[in-house]
Amino acid sequence: MPLDDWRARGKRFRYRGHNVFHMDEGGGEALVLIHGFPTASWDWHRLWPALAAGHRCIAPDMLGFGFSAKPRFHDYRIHDQADLHEALLAELGVDRYRILAHDYGDSVAQELLARDIDRRAEGEPGRILGVCLLNGGLFPETHRARPVQRLLLGPFGWLVSRLISERAFGHSMRQVFGPETPPSAVEMAAFWQLANERGGIRVYHRLIRYIEDRRTHRERWVGALRDAPVPLRLVDGVHDPVSGGHMAQRYRELVPDPDVVELPCGHYPQIELPAETLAAVEAFLAGSGPVSPSPGA
After folding, report:
1. What's the mean pLDDT in 191-200?
2. Other CB atoms closer than 10 Å to residue 27's CB: what's the count?
3. Which of 39, 49, 154, 290 is 20 to 30 A (C-alpha) from 280?
4. Percent helix, strand, coil in the chain (nearest 5)?
5. Is 251 exposed, middle or buried (0-12, 13-18, 19+ CB in 10 A)?
């Protein structure tokens, strides 16, 4: 789906005084799709038609991303983005759902799962039915930040965010794709448009604090995976330099009865190998066991 069509089909809701763009299509059991950094919900466009054919698919652009508001001095934190998702689901009347998350969105999913565990401990019914995770920094010790991410997190991050050009952005993005599954020129142009919409690049030094959040809340978020009362699946592009095969290995070490599907691609399985990623996600949603990885994984 072209980016302009995605934008035209989206909806808006207000969260703490800010406009939040979101997609809400399909019918049946709710599936919440949580995007990563530095892009937006359009990351799911290759999977969207098939998933929306069998589920009510809900995918917001989080604050600071895509077509949503990008307040200049907002304190962007993972807990706040989790609050945003809960507010949106309450607005839509959704109280039971599954999650499909990627990258930054994995951390949001871990916080939502931790909250669900807390609710169950207090005798309340759970809301989450299952969580499927794509490449992301599930464990701070295995997250290999890119050079630009380290610069953004440093004392001069505010300056770095102002100096990022389309060329530099494109170079950094291409580095996380697999050698055999590079992004197209159209996709790169769309990524840049999403990142730079409303001057969004200028808040990157604030958004990047999610790396600090992961360290601070490691025990809570890793504990959510370890103690999850619902099915989990990891779909991992093994050629990702940030959270590829090395992260999947750590997942196997820490998560009981790990369900892992490895694919021969980089950081964006849903864009690089959409058919294979869709098969893994749909099999999980249908409640089947692990699927075989693609040849060469």
Report:
1. 90
2. 11
3. 39
4. 45, 15, 40
5. buried
